[in-house]
């Protein structure tokens, strides 16, 4: 028997023991709860019967007072009768509740109690009828007939109701004693059974654990001796094999490992030369990485120089516009308005550059907040197309949208996704010639929502494609930039897409077609 089978058998036995003990505990607990419920119902019924007996006595006492010369206590008779009626109704409800609660074997006894309640209701109804007749006879001046009817009432109270109430009280008392005895027996048996089951489980667990330990400890010691031998450098040591279990297989693998190590020791010089070759290869890779870092550093320095230039230019224009306007002191408000419009345009460009820089810093420190919720991506793309249309009009280009008829649901921050889409549209407009169009489409495929932005501008060369999503990088043609910008847009869009669990890619055929795609996981995997 292998170790896996031994462990499985041991765990199976332990599981059977645990399940058995749990089953015994559950059965005892259910029986205990059942008897507790019966006891509670029996206590309540006994208390109700006692109250009914007291109220019946009060009812008879009120009738006696009426017959002995207190005709004004008719209201007391009526109040006592109502109390008896309410308590009898409560007893009937309790008896029906107990009848529905008890098991089949106890239901016959509870049916007798329900029949007894019916007898009480019949008797009290008969008494009520006679009492009303007595009151009527007394009011009509026929006390002799009332006295005869009172004798029948007294017979019902003394010989019928009292007997039924006494039987009911005795029966409930016996039931309470029987249930208390059952509860005590169940409690005693529960303790004994749990102790016995726990002792059996402990003995069997210890026995199986000891057998499992003995079957594992010997091969483990032999393997430890072998490991110590290898640590001392004794590569000729071999572990003896016994049986066909996992430890025998492990011993075989250990011996194979020792032979392999011994063989490797003989080939150490050859491996040394291979290591030297690997060191040279790693050195070359590090040099390549260093050149790459130097390139990125130059890009950063170039970016700082470009930012300084692009900030200096609008600041110079702002100052120049303001100084020229102040010196000219024109009489027409239109001159001021035109100057303020040029100043506002330059301020807008500066604000956009500063916003990109702030977003870059916040994204690097991971402090950009995302308010993600389930949104229809069509509205987000439509907003971005509308904003892009305003940008396109400055270059005499157009933005065409192709949106699906059905909703495309994603879990996202709508404002951030709109920013990413608008970055793609803005880039496409900047690199497109006047009179051309930018196509923006949305589709769902393979469980993902795909935003596509296509332009027919200058495109991106194959050498530059790997760098377009790097920060500070701007596509160039020769020595001249094709469009102004900070070089942050696509890197920001890539960061936003990845924060939403998505991806971004750019493909281009220079001077023909460039496509930017943003893929996002669909909410619920809908497809159109």
Q: How would you describe this structure to a colleague?
A:
The strands form 3 sheets. A 5-stranded mixed sheet has the order 2-4-5-9-8. It has a two-stranded antiparallel ribbon with strand order 1-3. 71% of the residues lie in helices and 9% in strands. With 528 residues, the chain is an alpha+beta fold. The chain folds into 3 domains: 9-206, A middle domain of Talin 1 (Up-down Bundle); 285-362, Signal transduction histidine kinase, dimerisation/phosphotransfer (DHp) domain (Helix Hairpins), CATH 1.10.287; 370-521, 2-Layer Sandwich (Heat Shock Protein 90), CATH 3.30.565. A hairpin with a 3-residue loop joins strand 8 (503-509) and strand 9. Helix 1 (3-67) runs antiparallel to helix 2 (74-101), helix 2 (74-101) runs antiparallel to helix 3 (104-139) and helix 8 (377-393) runs parallel beside helix 9.
Find the count of extended strands (DSSP E, 2+ residues): 9
CATH architecture grouping of the largest domain: Up-down Bundle
* Straight-line N-to-C gap: 57 Å
CATH class of the largest domain: Mainly Alpha
Radius of gyration: 49 Å
- N to C succession of SSEs: HHHHHHHEHEEHEEEEHEE
User: What structural class do the secondary elements suggest?
Assistant: alpha+beta
Strand order of the largest sheet: 2-4-5-9-8
Proportion of strand residues: 5-15%
- Output the CATH topology of the largest domain: A middle domain of Talin 1
Helix content: over 70%
């Amino acid at each position: 028997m292998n170790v896996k089978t031994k462990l499985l058998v041991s765990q199976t036995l332990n599981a059977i023991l645990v399940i058995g003990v749990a089953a015994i505990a559950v059965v005892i607990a259910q029986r205990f709860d059942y008897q507790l419920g019966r006891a509670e119902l029996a206590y309540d019924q006994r208390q109700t019967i006692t109250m009914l007996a007291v109220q019946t006595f009060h009812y008879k006492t009120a009738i006696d007072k009426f017959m002995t010369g207190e005709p004004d206590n008719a209201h007391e008779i009526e109040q006592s009768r109502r109390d008896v009626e309410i308590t009898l109704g409560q007893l009937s409800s309790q008896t029906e509740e107990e009848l529905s609660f008890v098991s089949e074997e106890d239901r016959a006894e509870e049916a007798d109690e329900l029949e007894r309640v019916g007898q009480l209701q019949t008797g009290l109804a008969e008494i009520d009828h006679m009492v009303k007749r007595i009151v009527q006879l007394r009011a009509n001046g026929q006390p002799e007939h009332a006295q005869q009817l009172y004798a029948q009432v007294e017979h019902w109270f003394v010989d019928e109701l009292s007997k039924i109430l006494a039987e009911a009280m005795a029966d409930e008392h016996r039931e309470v004693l029987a249930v208390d005895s059952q509860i005590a027996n169940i409690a005693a048996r529960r303790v004994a059974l749990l102790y016995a089951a726990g002792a059996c489980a402990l003995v069997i667990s210890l026995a199986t654990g000891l057998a499992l330990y003995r079957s594992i400890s010997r091969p483990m010691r032999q393997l430890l001796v072998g490991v110590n031998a290898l640590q001392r450098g004794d590569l000729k040591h071999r572990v003896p094999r016994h049986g066909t279990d996992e430890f025998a297989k492990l011993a075989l693998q250990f011996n194979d490992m020792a032979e392999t190590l011994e063989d490797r020791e003989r080939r150490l010089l050859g491996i040394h030369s291979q290591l030297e070759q690997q060191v040279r290869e790693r050195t070359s890779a590090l040099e390549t990485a260093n050149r790459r870092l130097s390139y990125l550093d130059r890009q950063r320095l170039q970016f700082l120089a470009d930012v300084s230039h692009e900030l200096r230019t609008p600041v110079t224009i702002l100052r120049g516009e303001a100084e020229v306007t102040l010196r000219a002191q024109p009489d027409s408000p239109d001159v001021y308005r035109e100057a303020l419009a040029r100043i506002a345009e330059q301020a807008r460009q500066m604000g956009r550059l500063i916003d990109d820089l702030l977003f870059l810093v916040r994204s690097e420190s991971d402090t950009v907040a995302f308010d993600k919720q389930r949104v229809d991506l069509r509205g987000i793309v439509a907003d971005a197309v509308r904003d892009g249309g305003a940008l396109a009009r400055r270059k005499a280009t157009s933005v065409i949208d192709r949106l699906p008829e059905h909703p495309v649901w994603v879990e996202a921050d709508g404002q951030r996704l709109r920013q990413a889409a608008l970055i793609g549209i803005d880039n496409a407009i900047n690199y497109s010639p006047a009179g051309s169009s930018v196509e923006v489409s949305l589709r769902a495929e393979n469980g993902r929502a795909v935003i596509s932005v296509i332009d027919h501008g200058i495109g991106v060369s194959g050498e530059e494609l790997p760098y377009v999503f790097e920060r500070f990088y701007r596509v160039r043609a020769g020595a001249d930039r094709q469009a102004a910008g900070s070089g942050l847009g696509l890197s920001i869009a890539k960061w936003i897409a990845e924060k939403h669990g998505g991806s971004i890619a750019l493909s281009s055929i220079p001077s023909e077609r460039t496509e930017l795609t943003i893929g996002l996981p669909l909410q619920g995997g809908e497809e159109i």
